[in-house]
Amino acid sequence: MQTERRGGVGSTLLLVRSALASPARHPRTAVVIGRLLGLGFLVCFGTGLFSHFVQDPLPGMAFPTRPVALYRITQGVHVVVGTALIPLLLAKLWTVYPLLFQWPPVKSLGGVLERAMIALLVAASLVELATGLANTYQWYPWPFRFRETHFALAWAIVGALAIHIAVKLPVIVRWWRRGRSVDAAGALLPVREGEGDLRPEPTASGVTGFLQRRLDGAPVPPPALSRRSVLAATGLATAAVVVTTAGETLPALAPLNVLAPRRLRYGPQGLPINRTAAEAKVQRSALDPAWRLTVRGPERSVDLSLADLRAMAQTDAGLPIACVEGWSTQAAWRGVPVRDLAALVGATGRELLVRSFARGAYSSTILQREFADDPLTLVALELNGEVLHVDHGYPARLISPARPGVLQTKWLRSLEVR
């Protein structure tokens, strides 16, 4: 018998694959889930690029300052969609993993390259989503730098995904729409050779007869799952993780925000905090009555006390604070426009270096011209009608429209022409 001549390994793999066979594991299922995965990864890639370059712009890059909630929208979408990709990816892997047990594993050099690319895509996707989820909880149990690794993996995923789609395009085209995948009675059409058939082999003779003998005559149990039940379960799981986590940026979902790490309006002055003054070790400097803000320009420098800043014309601005971890909330800020301070030292229209008393990452930031000149970019002194809490940056902090919270520097020390 031809199947028996395939050897012990091949027979064992066929036995495993037959045991895993189910109508739910069908190319149509893989395509339906896969097109959502592909769209989701592209959305995350685009919004992730925006977040990366806002923080580390290339020479000549400029960014819009309107709408003021731009970064809140893009990063909120990034984190929500990234979270939704987790159940989608798990469902896709469940659908196709019996193909790991095909025999022979590869039939050509092209097959070797295809499997290597799939391995890269799956590994990069799993690491990307797992570390991204950990980042939302500010948990970093790894030795590498998160943001640089996240950025590099995104490029690897998009490249591998493009190649995977190109290789599987004939299968995707055939099973893309329901109308092309069923016959007049509504049944799924047969799977063609090479299209990833995950169904049991014919029961009359051949491989399945051999496998059944290996199972001592025990019949292969009927499948317990249908294709529709798998898709419905995947949809429910995806909706559940979105609804229970998106409330940290969407007020309408805040009451259901049970799995997200933060709650809206939770924290001093109704605003969450990523890093307290104690953690930043700036309490002594921030609370020093002799504190001064140094504004240094090409013509001269000035040192301004808190009383000096409060004596200047104040601007009120309703701006969101939006962090890369995915949480955001709207707040009312009051302070001195940065462009007014820049005008004091002849630095109007110039790029500014903003320094903090805090040390370490993000202790300084570059305020590009478009942000420095925006009338809503403030050295904020008040938050939600009260003097800034020390954990929110007292005595003064930066707040600007359409920028990530990590660049909204707290505990200001100086503004300098770069």
TrEMBL record:
**Where are the membrane-spanning stretches?**
31-54, 75-97, 117-140, 152-176
- Domain (Oxidoreductase molybdopterin-binding) ranges: 289-417
Q: Which UniProt keywords apply?
A: Membrane, Transmembrane, Transmembrane helix
Q: Which InterPro entries match?
A: Di-haem_cyt_TM, Mopterin_OxRdtase_euk, OxRdtase_Mopterin-bd_dom, OxRdtase_Mopterin-bd_sf
Source species, domain of life: Bacteria
Q: What is this protein called?
A: Molybdopterin-dependent oxidoreductase
